[in-house]
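Weekly puzzle thread! Below is a chain. First person to post its structure in C-alpha cell form gets bragging rights.
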Amino acid sequence: MLRMTVGLALFATALRAQAPDTMALKQPMDPENPTAFIILHRSELKLADSQVTQLGNIGVALTMRIRPIKDSLDELRSEAPPPPRAQQTTAYIPPTPMTPAQRDSVLTSRRASARLLGEMHDAGRTARDQAVAVLNPDQQKKLQSLQDQIALEARLGKRPLINERGGPPGSASGAGTRPY
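Winning reply:
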C-alpha cells in the first residue's frame, strides 16, 4: 500500500513537470521581450525550427541591448534620495523650497530616465518588428489573433495587462520588481 502511494505521488509529480505552464500561455506579449511570447506559442503559430532559432537570436540580441540600459536606470534610481514615506499617495512637498542646484539635478535625472526608457522602448519595438518579419503572413495573422484573444480574456477576467498595475502600491502584483 505504501509503495503504491509513493508511486502515485511520484507519477503526479512527473506529470506536473511535463505539463505546460498554462498561466504563461495566458500572459500578454511583453513589449520588453516580444520574442519570448512568440516562441512560447510556437505550436499554435506552427513555427519551423529555423524560425525559432532566428527568434531566439533576436531575443538574445535584445537582452544584450537592454541589459546596460536597465543597469543605467538602476544607477539613476540608486542616486535619487528615497521618498520620505513609502506609502504616501499624494505628491511629496518638501518643507523648504528646492535650491536651483537641486531642481536642476532632479530635472537632469528625469531627462536621463526618459532618454533611457525611450531607448528601451525603441529596442523592444525594433525586436518586435524583426520578430514579426520572421513570420509568414498566415503566422502574422495568427499572432495578432492570439494577442487579441489574450487581451480580451485579460479584460474580461479583470486581470491587469502587462503595463497596468493591479491594486494599491506595494501589492503583490508589482512589488519588488523593476518599475520599467
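Puzzle host: Confirmed. Bonus trivia for everyone else. Confidence is low (pLDDT under 50) at residues 6-12, 14-20.
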